[in-house]
């Protein structure tokens, strides 16, 4: 009896699973949703060019010079009438120095110095200015000497040597001869800075005439 039961159990087999049919709608529901394409990055604006640094303001103290009352003061005037003036001018950086010379001559004429009383000595460069100024001053024919030039800084130390030697040499010419020698040499970083300072030569010319007048008064007082 038990053998038959075992035989019947062995003959019983589970029905194979019947695959289920999938509809198109089901497949569409199970399909992954398409991902949206990433948006292209927004173009970044190009940075604006940096503005050049502003030129520093002139470092001049405001106000006028005053001398306390009660003292004897010898002060000069920029009157050029009856005075002979020597002008030494460097030919190097001629575009600038030509304009310096033109402006200086205009100021001399405005001060009353006639053309026939002005002697102009062109020299190669700023380094030669002291020697020419010394030569003019030693003649004792000129009430003052105006030195004009332009030295622009370059990539080497040449600027420092030329500018320094021109300044000290012109001062030495004035000290050794007793004739006022005015420093009208522009020492700048760029040509543009030199062009912006051409009118300063007017102050140089007036300063030379003023010192000439002071020296004249001192010599007259010593007699």
CATH top level of one domain is Alpha Beta
The succession of helices and strands, N to C, reads HHEHEHEHEHH
Kindly report the spatial arrangement of strands forming the biggest sheet.
2-1-3-4
Percent strand? 5-15%
Task: Describe the protein in words.
- The protein has 223 residues and is of the alpha/beta class.
- It has a 4-stranded parallel sheet, with helices on both faces.
- α3 crosses α7.
- The chain has a domain at 85-222: Rossmann fold.
- It starts with a helix and ends with a helix.
- The mean pLDDT is 85.
- It is built from 7 helices and 4 strands, in the order ααβαβαβαβαα.
Please outline what is shown here.
By secondary structure, the protein is an alpha/beta fold. The chain has helices at 2-11, 24-30, 94-110, 129-138, 158-177, 191-196, 201-222; strands at 85-90, 118-123, 144-152, 181-188.
Topology of helices and strands:
Elements lengths: L1 H10 L12 H7 L54 E6 L3 H17 L7 E6 L5 H10 L5 E9 L5 H20 L3 E8 L2 H6 L4 H22 L1
Parallel strand pairs: 1-2, 1-3, 3-4
Helix pairs in contact: 3-7, 4-5
Looking at this protein, list some descriptive labels.
223 residues, alpha/beta, Rossmann fold, 4-stranded parallel sheet, 7 helices
